[in-house]
Specification:
about 180 residues, mainly alpha, 2 domains
Length: about 180
């Protein structure tokens, strides 16, 4: 039973590492890189990446949850309460992440996928850059109620509930408080 429990735990950990490693790469490396390109290129790259990720990453995601559940079960059956509880905590965290992904990330991913396939760029807020750069100027309201292509990028400090959208030319509070990016 020990070998089975450990093997399941290792399988769960490796598959979880694939998923979270992808997320960390996106947050630490890709997000800053996307800030340096125009919105059309960003939508194409991110939309296509999420389309491929949506096709390929469910397998390690499902395997990680199933292996974590089986690890919990096998540890509890073997009488290893501490190991079973630790595995159960890991399983609950995986399920919580799955809920967060499905409610927040997946809808945004679907918009980006559809936009990239259609060759369109969804409505997008400006990126608080000086005139003449590849992004549009900041905008009419820092309370943008709609989702936009750049919404998941670094939000503007001082923005009250949203990002800038085209039109303010840097006069809104968020634009005045946000450092310029090259």
């Amino acid at each position: 039973m020990l070998v089975l429990t450990v093997a399941l735990a290792v399988l769960a950990a490796v598959c979880t590492a694939v998923i979270f490693g992808t997320d960390v790469l996106g947050a630490v490396v890709m997000r800053p890189a996307y800030a340096e390109i125009d919105d059309q290129a960003m939508v194409q790259i991110v939309g296509r990446s999420h389309r491929l990720g949506g096709q390929r990453l469910p397998v390690p995601g499902v395997v990680s949850v199933v292996a974590a559940a089986l690890t919990t079960l096998s540890a509890l059956i073997a009488g290893w309460l501490a190991a079973g509880l630790a595995a159960a905590v890991g399983l609950v965290l995986l399920l919580a992440w799955l809920v967060i992904f499905n409610r927040i990330s997946l809808p945004i991913n679907k918009v980006l996928i559809a936009a990239s396939e259609a060759g369109e760029t969804p409505p997008t807020p400006g990126r608080c850059r000086p005139a003449g750069t590849r992004s549009s100027p900041c905008a009419r309201s820092c309370r943008a109620p709609h989702w936009s292509a750049s919404a998941w990028r670094s939000p503007s400090p001082g923005a009250e509930g949203g990002l800038c959208v085209d039109g303010c030319a840097g006069t809104c509070g968020a634009c005045r408080n946000r450092p310029e990016r090259a």
